[in-house]
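Step 1: inspect the first sequence and its tokens.
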Amino acid sequence: MSPSNLIRVMVVDDHAIMRAGLVSMIDREPGMTVVAEAGNGIQAVEGFHRHKPDITLMDLRMPLMDGVEAIESIRKEFHKSRFIVLTTYDGDEDIYRALEVGAQAYLLKGMARSDLFAAIRAVHSGLRYIPSVVAKSITSRVRSDLTKRELDVLKLLAAGRSNKEIAASLKTTEGTVKSYVI
């Protein structure tokens, strides 16, 4: 794959070991490369301006400027920028705030590496990526820019329905449901 076809990622986390691990994993994944790293929100904003990554993996709680503030700051100028929040915090307020300012995905650091790569690819192709564990936390709170269909899928997922059951309920295909929630 030529360098111009790679998904260009910036990794933002205040823990150097976490950042190094993510960089190592992403750089070994076919079709992806890390173009920048940052240890706080201010560095993230500066790094985004300099490198203009396709996807930014953003931690939430960092010194100087948190992840939500950094996303908000970047999206003021770069409206189409794409963010995946990667954090240990699974509280509904954290999730809601991140999605409200423009994050397209919200992942917990304990997930499988395959889920991280799936989220990067999904968000790069213009989709949202909300794992079921996260969806359950925010179903009652969501009033953001999710479409009606995304909300319908989210509610059914939070109720414990399988992709097949959601597809039948919404009269669509299982593949379409998977494109909403992978």
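Step 2: inspect the second sequence and its tokens, then contrast the two.
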Amino acid sequence: AGPEPLHGTHVAGIIAALDSAGVRGIARNVRIMALRAVPDGDERDKDIANAIRYAVDNGANVINMSFGKAYSPYKHYVDDAVKYADSKGVLMVHAAGNESANVDSTASFPTPVYLDGSGRARNWIEVGATSWHGKDSLVATFSNWGKGVVDIFAPGDDIKSTAPGGAYKKESGTSMAAPVVAGVAALVMSYYPGLSAADVKRVVLESAYKLGDTKVIRPGEGSDSPVAFGELSATGGVVNAYNALKRAEELSRVRP
């Protein structure tokens, strides 16, 4: 996101930073394609659509989408680009948003559900954020959630990563959680290049560390009573790189 480069630099570091100042990216054997498509946090649908198409046409295997907003006047442009990425076997990872809202009923665009009623993107993972506080505060207070739309959770609270000028900084948001999942997907792809985007999505979701019965405070107003963590996402799980690689190994034996 621009013109301030902190957000994109921080996201990229979560995926691919080398060991330095206590920061280590999840998948270091990757190449980052940096596309600046969001001015001042207010992305235009046309720019998002063009960025997705550019990434697909220039060899991206995973597209991390750490952005979102509450309206999408030209969603059909974005949907067409998402369909294009889907058809080319590119995995899209999107941050669920930071409004403490249920995105099953309150949209944070872009969304995997197509406007024209033709279904939803297959190669898409929607990511909520967990907090380092754990226990009943497992879900970050700002994170969006939704059993129908959010697929998985990942750490997104006080994440230390790279910042412009050779610095390091802690940032919070589902913007930080999405690249954790994108990084795990890239890690799996680097070790198991024979797996398709659909395979890798399956691996990431099936291997999530399941905490479905854990009672947590649901983000948002009027949610003091704990709910089951499994009610806030499709998997009821938190991404786990070790489990993902084990699951990928099992799947690759079946699908060499």
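Step 3: confirm your contrast with the notes below.
The radius of gyration is 17 Å. The longest helix spans residues 174-191.
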